[in-house]
Amino acid sequence: MQFQKDDSVDVKPIKIAPKTIFDLEDNLLLFYTGRVRSASSMLLDQHTRSLNNELEIKENLDQVKSIGLQISRALEKNDPRLFGSLMDEHWSLKRKRSTGMTNSDFDEWYELARANGALGGKIVGAGGGGFLMFYAQDSVSLRNAMSKIGLEELRFKFDFEGTKVVLS
Q1: Which one has a higher pLDDT value, 98 or 118?
Q2: What are 149-167's pLDDT values in tens digits?
Q3: What SS3 state is found at 138?
Q4: Which residues, listed in sequence order, are joined to residue 108 by a DSSP beta bridge?
Q5: Using CA atoms, how far apart are residues 6 and 45, in angstroms rounded to an integer?
Q6: Please, are residues 154 and 31 in contact by the beta-carbon 8 Å criterion?
Q7: Which fold is adopted by the domain 17-151?
Q8: Where are the domains of the chain?
């Protein structure tokens, strides 16, 4: 997505080969942490710092944008392992934007994952948490490590059909 100064947004889907999509489905692992944290104070802090034109936050966000563009190119060039490594760089930058971005549990789990086959990852979920997502170069080792500490994996696949209403 490209955000324009007039508040419009240009959407250009990236072209990802089926082989890369299958790799991502096999190696992107999502674990439920059972923990949630409020994102509102963290987002307010980032917003305030951005409005105050703090150089540090602007440079951080510029670096995140650059990583996003690199991720897009990596996926288009069928290099999901580079995507995983870039996820780690992104997480490192994101943690620097706000002290409330993570906590000791998330940090411990992240380091355990990195020691057991994850190239990179991030906290995901509305409200600022609930799940850890990793790109694994060794999914078996990562699954075993997360299972041992009680984090349940939530398996998923990509869906390209959009939102559906399911009535039961």
Answers
A1: 118
A2: 999 999 988 888 877 787 8
A3: coil
A4: none
A5: 25
A6: yes
A7: Alpha-Beta Plaits (3.30.70)
A8: 17-151
Q: In whole angstroms, what is the distance from residue 128 CA to residue 49 CA?
A: 19
Half-sphere exposure of 66 (CA within 13 A, CB side): 8
Measured CA distances, 72 to 12, 13, 84, 85, 149 (Å): 11, 10, 12, 13, 33
**DSSP line for 59-75:** HHHHHHHHHHHHHHHHH
From 75, 132, 77, select the one nearest 103 (Cα to Cα).
Answer: 132
Distance in angstroms (rounded) separating the CA atoms of residues 163 and 109: 32
d(CA 53, CA 73): 29
Whether 106 shows a pLDDT value over 80: the answer reads yes
Helix (H) / strand (E) element for 90: namely helix 80-97
What mean pLDDT do residues 112-130 have? Answer: 86
pLDDT > 90 fraction of the chain, expressed in percent and rounded: 58
Q: Give pTM, 2 decimals.
A: 0.83
Give CA 34 to chain center in angstroms. 18
Does residue 12 register a pLDDT over 70?
Answer: yes
